[in-house]
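Reopening: structure tokens for the pyridoxal-5'-phosphate complex, inputs below.
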Amino acid sequence: MTTITIPFNRPAIVGRELDYMADAMRGGQTSGDGRYTKLCHAFFETTLGVKKALLTTSCTHALEMSALLLDFQSGDEVIVPSFTFVSTVNAFVLRGAQPVFADVRPDTLNLDETKLEALITPRTKAIVVVHYAGVACEMDTIMRIADAHGIPVVEDNAHGLFGTYKGRQLGTFGALATQSFHETKNFTCGEGGALLINDPALIDRAEIIREKGTNRSRFFRGMVDKYTWVDVGSSYLPSDVLAAYLWGQLEQREAIQTHRGRVWAMYDECLASWAAANRVTMPNVPDGCEQPFHMYYLLMPSLEARTAFIAHMKEQGILSVFHYLPLHLSDMGKSMGGQVGDCPVTEDVSDRLVRLPLYNNLSETDQTRVIETALMFRA
Ligand SMILES: Cc1ncc(COP(=O)(O)O)c(C=O)c1O
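Re-run output (same inputs, fresh job):
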């Protein structure tokens, strides 16, 4: 078996993460909402311009909070792309929602806004969009349709922190947006996430849901003299030690994004002629979208070509990986009515997509080896 010498992802210490984590541990508060959590909250509120940011234990949990906040009940429908991670839909299904799977656009792999309106019914309770690879969905159209029907939008922005659409930060369009700080993301604390709240009417309840259904946050702000159980909720706030890890990464925002931008551009430049000669499609970033360089993917001409490409890279010790399988054709998706042919673009691209190594300390030497190995492949 070949040893993998260039993984698909590798978490890196990029700044003062270890100092800050030690500081949090020495400082007397390792539970949630300490000094570092507050620094992260303020950072997101200022740099993104959201009304409220709340760190969570994962993006999955921020999505679960969204479903609770929007009062999902059994039988309510949620429109989600089929081409996404399980949590995008599972968070709503946990509350009894029926998923309505939308297909994606072949050029960006984002929810196809031209097909959205046809999926809306009187039971549609929310539209969840995913900015795949951090490249924005067509938000003008999506928000116009959602607003016309009075349906809230949730942006699953797991990939898209610091991406923009027509100059506006992703995560600021929907009533709610969710972030991931899982190990594979541009900024990480191992496992973590955030809920971004743009609809001020949802802020108080979000704090309660995140704090086990209690009004503890109001108590700490001196707004009530004792705290008590006031609503449903769970424990969605991360330890301040994890917030300290995340803060160490966020402080290095410029360095991280500059490095990832360089890696992304080098793949794009060096693979272009090879891709054209081998019927490989490269990522498309439409005008008006600035992407945060979360991912570099290729669309191979066929499933066979992708399987052969992954094996070819692996023989040289390089891990390249595929991504989402169509959710409507998963066991759960089928049990909820999904059928072959429901989302043809998703069914096609999920067979052909492959992602190349991209991480915060990927060296130029290693990246050159990835590129040279890819260039030897013939589709
Ligand atoms: C689009 C999307 N949403 C949600 C998640 C879940 O993120 P987390 O692992 O932070 O729960 C992922 C995971 O990568 C994802 O790709």
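The chain has a mean pLDDT of 97. The CA atoms of residues 166 and 288 lie 5 Å apart. Marking as resolved unless the reporter disagrees.
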